Amino acid sequence: MADLWLKLSLVLITIHTTLGVGLPYEFAHHRYEDLQRIIAETHSVCPDISRVYNIGRSVQGRNLTVIEFSDNPGTHEPGEPEVKYVANMHGNEVTGREMLLLFMQYLCNSFKSVWRVKRLIKSTRIHILASMNPDGYEIAARKGPGNVWNNGRENVQGIDLNRNFPALNTIAYKSEQHGGPTDHIPIPNNYWKGNVAPETEAVIRWIKQYPFVISANLHDGALLANYPYDQSKGGSQRGVYARSPDDAVFRQIAATYANAHRTMSLPNSGCEGHSDFGSQGGITNGAAWYSVAGGMQDFNYLHTNCFEITLELSCDKFPPAGVLPTEWRNNRKALLAYIEQAHKGIKGFVLDRNLDPIVGATIHVDGINHDVTTAKDGDYWRLLVPNTYTVTASYNGSTRTKQVTVSTIRARTLNFIMDV
Ligand SMILES: *[C@@H]1O[C@H](CO)[C@@H](O)[C@H](O)[C@H]1NC(C)=O
Ligand SMILES: *[C@@H]1O[C@H](CO)[C@@H](O)[C@H](O)[C@H]1NC(C)=O
Ligand SMILES: [Zn+2]
């Protein structure tokens, strides 16, 4: 019977594809098997621009499955930025999970017909993890929509995954007091002696494996785009803005999502019981809302080159499936616009005098105490808001400095040839 269904659905997919209709969008909640099915179907309809891989397993053995989109899936193309979306880290927050399933189908369906999607996939490697907490989701899904507030939020060990990452903020805050670095802060050894969930560990490995430039972590329970720092500086729990060195960039990328979303940046669009984030453009500094230690977004920023924000997509954490078409209309353009931000600021290569790539060279921007480093091909990406900057590349005692003016259009290319 299962075989018959499989064959039947493959026939249907084939018909859809030959007619140029593409994958049928399913506005429904998808349990684990259905999520896996959508990912597999998407890949089978678009094998030339996608790849499916697992980054690890949940406590109960469910795969943490990623689908990647690129015009050369499976390889890093020198100079091209990589981006990621992660949803459903809190198992009971499900809108993001469904948005990412729709988004992968949309990328596949639109590659040939929508110029903007084609350009994006040709210039960017996009990784999508629709569920970081598949075990928690199953607990929440058994209750269904209207799920009691926190059922299935944590993984099955009772760990809140968005409090489980290495909390590097205290180290960074101490360091910045005496002008020390606030980037590439190592994970303290004692972190691994604590309770690290397998889901968290898999994502940490993933974050370190790819040269991600920008990402978003999709949650529910409010409507806003939340940017670093999440952890307050003075130990206060609530209401104190914790500015990062890249505050201007974070405000720009968060506002990009909020403004491209159909309601997030409108006054009075917020959720009952929360402040009206719409009246401040739909964005907030994390700690200004409430302080979180061990969150994923601060970890990305303090340990790697990736700039991550946290999106809260709907007031209802597990809404009825009937709202999904509206939610898709609300989020579709924002999901595209946000990834396009990976192409802002400056980018380029750092090479040695033989024009071979230098891995691990440092790119420093005057006035911003947060350096990025070059990846395996000597390539780097440095998000910046429009302005004129002095940029220095350094490697093993050798430095090169250049001036650059960044505009609102695509990233300026700034290459450095070092005397090494
Ligand atoms: C996880 O993925 C592997 C490799 O694709 C597959 O063999 C296995 O059946 C999957 N497990 C589950 C629980 O889906
Ligand atoms: C760094 O510079 C030193 C001194 O010039 C040199 O001996 C060493 O080989 C260089 N290391 C690398 C990795 O280039
Ligand atoms: Zn959440």
CATH architecture of the largest domain: 3-Layer(aba) Sandwich
The CATH homologous superfamily of the largest domain is termed Zn peptidases
Biggest sheet strand line-up: 1-2-4-3-5-8-6-7
Total individual domains:
2
Beta percentage is 15-25%
CATH topology of the largest domain: Aminopeptidase
Discrete helix count: 11
The major β-sheet equals: 8 strands, mixed
N-to-C SSE string, H for helix and E for strand: HHEEEHHEHHHEEHEHHEHEEEEEEEE
Helix content estimate: 25-40%
Nearest-integer average pLDDT: 93
What ligands can be seen in this structure? 2-acetamido-2-deoxy-beta-D-glucopyranose, zinc ion
CATH class of the largest domain: Alpha Beta
Rounded radius of gyration (Å): 21 Å
| Beta strands, count | 16
Distance between the termini: 65 Å
Low-confidence stretches: none
> Given the helix and strand composition, which structural class is it?
alpha/beta
**Shape by Cα distribution:** globular
Summarize the structure.
It is an enzyme of class 3 (hydrolase). The protein is an alpha/beta fold and 420 residues long.
Textual characterization of the structure:
This protein is of the alpha/beta class and 420 residues long. The chain has two domains: 2-343, Zn peptidases (Aminopeptidase), CATH 3.40.630.10; 346-417, Immunoglobulin-like. 31% of the residues lie in helices and 21% in strands. The protein has eleven helices and 16 strands. The chain has helices at residues 2-18, 32-45, 95-110, 115-123, 134-143, 169-177, 198-209, 247-260, 286-289, 296-303, 324-340; strands spanning 50-57, 63-69, 82-87, 125-129, 212-219, 224-227, 283-285, 307-312, 346-351, 362-365, 368-373, 379-382, 387-395, 398-406, 412-413, 416-417. The strands form three sheets. The chain has an eight-stranded mixed β-sheet, sandwiched between helices. Strand 6, helix 8 and strand 7 form a beta-alpha-beta unit. Helix 2 runs parallel beside helix 3 (95-110) and helix 8 runs antiparallel to helix 11. It is globular. The structure holds 2-acetamido-2-deoxy-beta-D-glucopyranose (2 copies) and zinc ion. The site of one 2-acetamido-2-deoxy-beta-D-glucopyranose has 5 residues, from loops.
